[in-house]
Amino acid sequence: MFEKLLAERIKGISPYLPEDGSGMTALDKNESPFEAEEAVKAVILERLREIPLNRYPDNDCKALKKAIAAYSGVSDEDIVAGNGSDELIHVVMQAFVEPGDKIMLHSPTFSMYGFYAALCGGQVVSYDTGSGFKIEEETFLDRIRRENPKLLILCNPNNPTGGVLGLIQVEAMLACFNGMLLVDEAYYEYSGITAQGLALKNDRVIVLRTLSKGMGLAGLRIGYSISCPAVAAYLERARPPFNINALSQAAAIAVMENAASFLSGIESVKAERARMTERLARLKGVVCYPSAANFILIRVSNPDEVLDKLEKQRIRVKSFGSPALRDCLRITIGTPEENNRLCSLFEEVYDEQCG
Ligand SMILES: Cc1ncc(COP(=O)(O)O)c(C=O)c1O
Q1: 225 CA distance to ligand 1 middle (Å)
Q2: 13 in a domain, yes or no?
């Protein structure tokens, strides 16, 4: 009975079903392999003890914004905090996209953009990067000019390909249309490239970040946007009240105040990324795409055999259903020990290239 009453746009949406990785080595979700240090955890626990759980959390996330602003080198009023950056993708669309408006993406990219676009009735216009996953700049700029989308989303570095655009390229794209530009920098800590300066001087630009990746806090669900204050004020109107619970706010503040202790983890992931890329690229039947994030996308000649082997060793990596990514696997950089186990398995399946 209720089906007849469902909103039309909901019917085509598939539920988001992340796989349950319990008991597995999880190299499939682009999480950090490092847990917070014990000393930082002790500070977090101390702060949590002081929280009055009978009270609503700070709706404005004042202290959290202050900590994020200090970490990012911007002002508190440039920040909007979200329950994960996922929530902020939705909020940006709620604020700017009317049903039927064009939302332009380069594909393949992060699947949640399509999900939230469908929820708000936006029309997704996709620029296909083909099997090499490279954005051909002139063709892309031309397409942006022609489509003149209401919202252009650049995932930078891009999940799942790992490719990254330079700031000059981002600026060229912004100059080609009149709509909003959302630059999703979930993997910023690994790439070091940011459009935050552009967002502060241009009110058509919003940068998105998260504490889930480089900061290793996926369990807290904290993301944030950087934009000029006038845009931030409208994003605040479009978000749910009390969207970040008191425990997450307090824990995230404690972590941001100890941000330096997490940066060594980032350097180690980058070094491991280089080591794994070099080791996997030596194998016949494996193509590695260059990555500026905490994962590597590879194309393999026989994905099913590899996946089967990995599954038997209780290692999970990300595979894809879409035609463009059918032979591809996305491997999150883990600890050196996890990475060695994974590489050894690949070396059992593939011979080394000659020469
Ligand atoms: C590109 C990108 N943006 C946003 C997110 C969402 O991150 P979170 O909601 O954990 O902040 C992810 C998560 O994988 C991602 O890859």
Answers
A1: 12
A2: no
Q: In whole angstroms, what is the distance from residue 294 CA to residue 274 CA? A: 10
**Range 260-263, long-range pairs (CB < 8 A, 24+ positions):** 261/37, 261/39, 261/40, 262/34, 262/36, 262/214, 262/215, 262/216, 263/189
Is the domain of 266 the same as that of 242? no
Residues 63 and 125 both lie in one domain: yes
CB of residue 294 inside a 6 A radius of ligand 1:
no
218 lies in a domain? yes
What are the pLDDT digits (tens) for 135-192? Answer: 999 999 999 999 999 999 999 999 999 999 999 999 999 999 999 999 999 999 999 9
Query: Among the atoms of ligand 1, which is closest to the Cα of residue 85?
Result: 11
Q: Domain containing 138 — which CATH number?
A: 3.40.640.10
Domain encompassing residue 201: 50-257
Question: pTM above the 0.90 mark?
Answer: yes
pLDDT of 263 strictly over 80: no
